[in-house]
């Protein structure tokens, strides 16, 4: 189902401090209308996780069960949800009413609370680092956040768990990532599946960030227009801003693998080159024991050739292995 802006509901009760935007209300509407899956494609920083988490908190109080919030990697869940605060200083996790919480464990990112039936509902943040080894879970509700960064088969591997409980529901939120990927495939499938409710909005709909601010960033070269169209206007046509390895760099950033790595003179330096007519890239790396690769240096040469590449290698004080 596509977004119908005329179908709006207010939550049945004031549960917490969140004043939901229209699309956040639509998430609740979809579940109350019996849809099992809600695919939410909205711009960056528009509040998709707040809307999903508020929905989880409400459903936990209404219906006893086990509820989960899954990210592509476990550490993303800690930074993006469990320890995250809003721009005005409110912790995301304060969406759960404090007087309802029975137990909270910061290490495992788990909490339990008292529901309206006088029993317990549980909540836990998960990382889908290895979806092939997902444990068996009795799921009543789950959120898959930043779905474009999930492993391609994650949703398929979760399907037996969803189908084990006909009342189980799943919220999937993301920004776009071009057409040649699993997010696009899921979107296309959702348009044909009767259990899917599809919410698709852009910056022009939500208006949460001034367009003038984004245009200033583009003009200054802080962000490319392609990437702005993808992240703010949810364009499916932008790909990954021209980068073939963009998703791998995203993964390294989320895993804290991008940092300052120093040259270790005990080990030789190897090089890998992409020699082009317009740009040549030289990557300098070392093979450290225990199967560790340290990328210690990188050079970009504009309109250079093999001679410029050799000169760059010669001027560095490295002991080389091979090129």
Which features characterize this protein?
323 residues; 8-stranded mixed beta sheet; 3-stranded antiparallel beta sheet; disordered N terminus
Task: Give the secondary structure arrangement, pairings included.
Elements: H1 22-32, E1 37-41, H2 48-62, E2 66-71, H3 74-82, E3 101-105, E4 110-114, E5 120-127, E6 141-145, H4 154-163, E7 169-174, H5 182-190, E8 196-200, H6 203-206, H7 211-220, H8 225-231, H9 246-254, E9 270-275, E10 279-288, E11 292-302, H10 306-315
Helix pairs in contact: 1-2
Summarize the structure.
29% of the residues lie in helices and 22% in strands.
Secondary-structure class = alpha/beta
SSE sequence, one letter per element = HEHEHEEEEHEHEHHHHEEEH
Tell me the β content. Answer: 15-25%
Biggest sheet: strand arrangement: 3-4-5-2-6-7-1-8
Quote the distance from N terminus to C terminus: 55 Å
Could you walk me through the main structural features you see in this protein, from its secondary elements to its overall organization?
- The chain is an alpha/beta fold and 323 residues long.
- 29% of the residues lie in helices and 22% in strands.
- It has helices at 22-32, 48-62, 74-82, 154-163, 182-190, 203-206, 211-220, 225-231, 246-254, 306-315; strands spanning 37-41, 66-71, 101-105, 110-114, 120-127, 141-145, 169-174, 196-200, 270-275, 279-288, 292-302.
- Strands 3-4-5-2-6-7-1-8 form an eight-stranded mixed β-sheet, sandwiched between helices. It has a three-stranded antiparallel β-sheet with strand order 9-10-11, with helices on one face.
- Strand 3 (101-105) and strand 4 (110-114) form a beta hairpin.
- It is elongated, with a radius of gyration of 23 Å.
- The chain starts with 21 loop residues before the first helix and ends in an 8-residue tail after the last helix.
- The relative contact order is 0.12.
